[in-house]
Specification:
- With 265 residues, the protein is an alpha/beta fold.
- The chain has 7 helices and 11 strands.
- The protein has a single domain (17-235), classed as Vaccinia Virus protein VP39 (Rossmann fold, 3-Layer(aba) Sandwich).
- The chain has helices at residues 3-21, 28-38, 56-65, 95-107, 142-160, 180-188, 229-239, and strands at 46-50, 70-75, 85-89, 109-111, 114-117, 127-132, 164-175, 191-197, 208-216, 253-256, 259-262.
- It starts with a helix and ends with a strand.
- S-adenosylmethionine binds next to helix 3 and strand 2.
Length: 265
Amino acid sequence: MSKRWFQAHQRDTWRRQARSKGYRTRSAFKLKQIQEKFLLIREGDLILDVGSHPGGWTQVAVEETGPNGLVIGIDLLTSAPVEGAQMVLGDVTDPNCQESILDLLHEGLKVDGTNLHPVADDETRMFNTIVSDISPRLTGQYDRDQAISLELVAMVFDFTLPLLAPGGAFVTKIFQGTGIEGIINAAKQRFSRVQRFSPEASRSSSSEVFLVCRNKLPHPKKGSRGTSIAQELDIHLESEGIIQQKDSGPRDSVKSGFRRIPKKE
Ligand SMILES: C[S@@+](CC[C@H](N)C(=O)[O-])C[C@H]1O[C@@H](n2cnc3c(N)ncnc32)[C@H](O)[C@@H]1O
């Protein structure tokens, strides 16, 4: 029996199970298995689901938070509504879209016109747990896809961590390869427990692993105060000789796949 056949067979099995249980994706089982092991989501929680389309993880998060909880899903693609969740359409790295999420937290969160989580004027609700299955559009070139994905994960961390309550948890998919130690080390500066986990439902895709970060510290540890996760990833990549020092690149540049490319005018 070839490895490829076995992997395809496993994926089909999870797909069939997802269909029979009413989940939109087989990935739903990945979050279910993460939840079974770590119990990150509790009844009544406020959850952010990053890269939520078509809504498999959102469905699982809604089940776990129950009628008093709320899940906010965000994705570039439109998803059919999920009862108990509010879906935001947009790019999580785009400041306008980030503003919409901040507005939701600040204004109070409504589902079907009901104000579920009224907040005082000067109060902003914080997420209890953030889950991210985000994945960029894949090019098929593994090294490049893995690098782009890592940078995306760093951006998601940097935007969402200030919105996560102290003691809260963060789960993200990462692809094995260059630089992941940089992200893991940066996470360890901000959470008291960080570990990799490979749910059974994702073992057929050997390159992906989930980083489970628990108990967010009230402040990053000393060495990381004032730096972002994206900066710490860069420092790690520079120290490994994977990218050149920032100063030696063109000033106004963006990175793509660990290669700095000049911004288009
Ligand atoms: C593997 S899918 C998520 C599947 C989902 N967890 C489920 O079970 O239904 C990854 C998603 O990340 C989204 N994505 C990629 N880049 C994004 C970005 N910058 N902002 C928001 N979503 C993004 C993609 O559109 C895609 O839908």
